[in-house]
From TrEMBL, chain A:
InterPro entries tied to this protein: ABC_transp_permease
Membrane topology: Multi-pass membrane protein
Transmembrane segment boundaries: 42-63, 84-116, 136-158, 170-189, 209-233, 261-283, 342-360
Protein name as annotated: Autoinducer 2 import system permease protein LsrD
Automatic annotation (TrEMBL), chain B:
Species this protein is from: Rugosimonospora africana
Presence of the UniProt keyword Transmembrane helix in the record: no
Alphabetic keyword roster: ATP-binding, Nucleotide-binding
Protein name: Sugar ABC transporter ATP-binding protein
Domain called ABC transporter: residue spans: 7-244
A single GO molecular function term of this UniProt record: ATP binding
Length: 369, 279
């Protein structure tokens, strides 16, 4: 009775060797178009548009003030943005999974403090206590960074646990850890920044260059590319989109949604930890009174980059572009001598507009069903 | 036709807290046949299907697959047996495209990277095999598809795998005439290809159009499972609304027991025999 029934079991016809490229657009597909996923996704996000905006801004400021695109200003812009880029990448994962992470700024500071304290503890020079660990070697530096990153990861996992297992809304859970991480930081430091990190760490990672490119940027870009590929081209990435799009559907096909969410928040925490270490190297001190708006900057970048706050869409590339827009606006206004505070106004307005457009698109979609 | 049903549920009990939704339910599905599962709203059809699919654990009873007792604790267990379910609410990811939805949870990879070409090819071939021509691009987002197209994608997702049993929970409920006909054609085609298909529907025309067997749930009990050719339209309606029709269905005592909700277990007797509640 099973003339063709068993075919269901063996999807690619046996014996026919698979061509490396599908010919699905050809005869078997009967003219069904097959767009590469990246292109298809691009068409449905505003990543493309925000990229055009970025290019337009650079061209505009470049025309107004030719030295805007000088190597130096680009370099410092990139170095200043590097830690925030990592945070935005983590935020991209979280927002795609239909969550939010407000704690990233606090976790960044906390991780920086843990890293610095560990370096001082391991590399402190008994004879010259004032010198801190400035002359300590790379082992001390690495141990400190590892401790800082683990600190970030721990906060992230706690966020994930609260959201996935305790079912606390992400907004509240991460608002809680925002406060807790900040409180812990102040308890550890007594409110004063930690100084005296190893000099070799600051000189290389902090402001060293490789072929003219800051180490900071290289590290941040490498991590970003890695996580961008993971999101776009691996099972883990697919599941992140699926959970943000329809968690119940993901559960029904056997995806362990809780576990996955914990990992997603863990990634965000870990990246905030790495950002804390980079920031520590760059400023040679912890910056415990800064970073209060990092969470909002990262969220803005992710949303500008085409992600939906309802989950299920967004890309790492988009977020990176979305992060550069405010940064370019800021330095652009400075170079053409417009009050740079206009930047906040402009970005705020564009952000609200981006969410509004997303809302409209969702409405049109459900009406057209 | 093999003698042993590919899927057999025996004496299934299922409660949600104090509410007993399934009582001593027997149900079978044969390869190459469409088995319609009918019953009024709240009769327990979706619950039975979710028990089969591993979404809900059963309280007691036997789950036999190909004549052998198995334990199914998760959707993964069910799909590794070859049982695929298209749920009433479909559960597709709107933000993902057709290929991504079809392979969700079982993505093909090359190393750690997704093998998009192979997945596209398999998805396209499956849609072709189901003679689906309404979908323009397999990279279209599900959000942009019509109800019938979504149903098609959900069915294609179910048959993409090594599936032996495909269960469809009210696949035509939200569809127009033309799309309903298409889905029913698809259902018949799957059975003709040797799969066991279970179709849940409230529409008697649909049921009689494609079903080989009809199983009727009444207030959580299996009133009867009979050959479609052995019953009339009105007998099935009676089974659905009253739990019995002539000497078919639950005996009077069982109907009363089912009717008052908390009745004892031991009164149900169907034409298929043992529902004496020796647990
Ligand atoms: N998770 C649950 N918790 C508690 N009660 C439930 C749950 N799921 C279903 N029920 C109850 O079980 C009974 C059967 O529901 P079920 O969804 O199986 O019915 P159905 O036959 O599929 O109905 P319909 O034709 O409306 O889809 C209903 O009374 C319902 O309220
Ligand atoms: Mg139902």
């Amino acid at each position: 009775m099973t003339e063709t029934g068993t075919e269901a079991a063996t999807p690619p016809p046996a014996g026919a060797p698979q061509p490396s490229r599908p010919d699905t657009g050809g005869e078997p597909g009967r003219g069904r178009r097959v767009l590469p996923p990246a292109v298809a996704r691009l068409a449905y996000t505003n990543t493309f548009w925000i990229f055009l905006v970025l290019v337009a801004l650079v061209v505009f400021f470049g025309a107004m003030q030719p030295n805007f695109i000088s190597a130096v200003s680009l370099r410092s812009l990139a170095a200043d943005t590097a830690p925030l880029l990592l945070i935005a990448v983590g935020m991209t994962y979280v927002i795609i999974s239909a969550g939010i992470d407000l704690s990233v700024g606090s976790v960044l500071i906390f991780s920086g403090v843990i890293a610095a304290k560990t370096m001082l503890w391991l590399g402190g020079d008994g004879a010259h206590p004032d010198a801190g660990a400035t002359s300590a070697g790379w082992t001390v530096t690495l141990a400190g960074c590892l401790a800082g990153m683990l600190g970030g990861l721990a906060w992230g996992l706690l966020n994930g646990f609260m959201v996935a297992r305790m079912k606390i809304p992400a907004l509240i859970a991460t608002l809680g850890t925002l406060g807790m991480a900040l409180g812990a930081t102040y308890l550890i430091t007594g409110g004063t920044d930690v100084r005296g990190i190893p000099l070799n760490f600051a000189r290389t990672v902090g402001f060293g260059l490789v072929a003219g490119v800051p180490w900071l940027v290289i590290i941040a870009v490498l991590v970003t590319v890695l996580l961008g590929v993971v999101l776009a081209a691996t099972r883990f990435g697919s599941h992140t989109y699926a959970i943000g799009s329809n968690a119940e559907a993901a559960r029904r096909v056997g995806i362990r949604v809780d576990r996955h969410l914990i990992k997603v928040y863990g990634i965000s925490g870990l990246l905030a930890g790495i950002a804390g270490c980079l920031s520590l190297a760059h400023f040679t001190t912890t910056t415990i009174s800064g970073h209060t708006a990092d969470n909002l900057s990262a969220i803005a970048a992710v949303v500008l980059g085409g992600a939906s706050l309802f989950g299920g869409s967004g890309t790492v590339t988009g977020s990176a572009v979305g992060l550069l827009v405010p940064a370019v606006l800021q330095s652009g206004f400075v170079t053409i001598q417009v009050n740079p505070y206009w930047q906040y106004l402009a970005v705020g307005a564009v952000l609200v507009l981006a969410v509004y457009v997303d809302q409209l698109r969702r409405k049109a979609r459900s009406a057209g069903r | 036709m093999t003698a042993t049903p590919i899927l057999e549920m025996r004496g299934i009990d299922k409660s949600f807290g104090p509410v007993q939704v399934l009582r001593q339910v027997d149900f079978t599905a044969n390869a190459g046949e469409v088995t319609a599962l009918v019953g009024d709203n709240g009769a327990g059809k979706s619950t039975l299907v979710k028990c089969v699919g591993g979404i809900y654990p059963i309280d007691s009873g036997d789950y036999l697959f190909d004549g052998k007792p198995v334990t199914v604790h998760s959707p993964r267990d069910a799909s590794s047996l070859g049982v695929e379910i298209v749920y009433q609410d479909l559960a597709l990811c709107e933000n993902l495209d057709i290929v991504q939805n079809m392979f969700l949870g079982r993505e093909r990879t090359r190393g750690i990277v997704l093998d998009e070409p192979t997945m596209e090819k398999m998805a396209s071939e499956t849609l072709d095999r189901l003679s689906v021509r309404t979908v323009k691009s397999i990279r279209q987002l599900v959000a942009s598809l019509s109800g019938g197209q979504r149903q098609t994608v959900a069915i294609a997702k179910a048959v993409l795998w090594n599936s032996k049993v495909v269960i469809l929970d009210e696949p035509t409920a939200a569809l127009g005439v033309a799309q309903t006909a298409q889905v029913l054609e698809l259902v018949r085609q799957l059975a003709d290809n040797g799969l066991a298909v279970v179709l849940i529907s409230h529409n008697m025309n649909d049921v009689f159009a494609v079903a080989d067997q009809i199983a009727c749930l009444y207030l959580g009990r299996m009133a009867a499972q009979v050959k479609a050719t052995d019953v009339t339209y009105s007998q099935v309606v009676e089974l659905i609304t009253a739990g019995r029709s002539g000497d078919l269905g639950l005996q009077a005592a069982a109907v009363a027991a089912a009717g008052n909700g908390n009745g004892s277990h031991d009164a149900g007797v169907t034409d298929l025999g043992d529902m004496n509640g020796a647990q």
